[in-house]
What we know:
This protein is mainly β. The protein contains one helix and 21 strands. The chain is globular.
Amino acid sequence: MSRRQTLQARARSRVAQMLGLASAIALQLAGGAAIASDEFGMSANRTYRTQANSPTVPNNAEDGLRAGNYLIYPWADLQSTFDDNVKDENGERGSDWRTQLGAGVTFRSDLPRHMLDVIFSGRIVSFAEHSDQDYEDGLAHASFRIDIDHGNALGGELETALRHEEKLTAEGLTDAAEAVPVWASHLRLAYVHDIGKLAATFGVDAARNDYDDVHDYAGATIDQDYRDVERLGAFARLDYRFSPAATTYLGLRTEREDHLVPDESDRDALIHKARAGVQLELTPLVMLTLSAGYAYKVYDESIRSDFGAYLWSAELQWVPTEMTTVKLSASQELAESSLAAAEGRLDTVIGARLEQELGRQVNVALDLAVTGQEFLGLERVDDVYWGRASLEYELGENVLFTIAYEHQERDSSEDRFDSDDNRYTAGVKVHF
């Protein structure tokens, strides 16, 4: 393989890793459980691809345990973090050591036709001195693809997860004495026609977020039913490949948002979205992605005002050397809000990532993000500053050591939401 081909493969292989990090940042900033954030079935995995354009599992894959037509990827990790902003039983700021133990397994199919992948994962978070903040998360995910023929397929996914919302998130409860449990589930089905230059995707999905009640610092129950929501959606997307280096798409989506408590029925609405984008490979080492669109929310009851918002995103990925990757991104998205008085939240994010390999085994990275959060219908506006520096060391093929420093600062127009947090983490992950 030539040097250019090596660098190009390296650039593409890192896309999934960076998208994963971007999703983690988005979840952290948004707080709570995101409802089916892949609104147009644009996931980079194999679920919404046809057999003609689906990535396959190589028979000589270096990692994973092969069992017939499946590759099994088990993993476990242990992290120890010093956190300087942990609230005690009186709501006062303190510091503590938090330990996170996680484990999971992915079953990835390698069938001649069709696909069925399954993921199970969970984690236990415990605090040395603030045991009231302990919690356990879990996730089960299944995705499938039925190949009708070489260029037509039916894909889908089902996921249910128990997650916890901590206080320092955008909509975390400042008076809750514990992390807020959220049961989040979603289902999606899509038909895909993808062969040649033109591709079309048509799908439907459903999602539900259900928040459990929690206690405040005085021991009283905080009712969370007003945050429970269901969504039913339908979407269509057209993709056109001008060349292997240039692809464009147009997506349309309509969804129904229903709140499960009758007293919150004035928040029920229809949301319409349209979006167009282009992905360009400017050179084998530079990739540019642009998109723009519009969202409009129509409420059932006139007590609330209908509104619209522009959506856009830009992302540049550059691999200047064999060891260096640079990513710059900016976006504006309309996010859901679980706050009773809010009509939604407009998030504007500017982010950057620098990744540098120091030889074969050591990798360092620096991530920065600035987010402006406007709570529509309220007078609240937050600015969030986030950064993370990390060093990873690979011991052989199956063990990864990590040390990291993370800082987050929230500057809100409402002083009670102001916060800052520093976390120092050391961890080890074992995977096969």
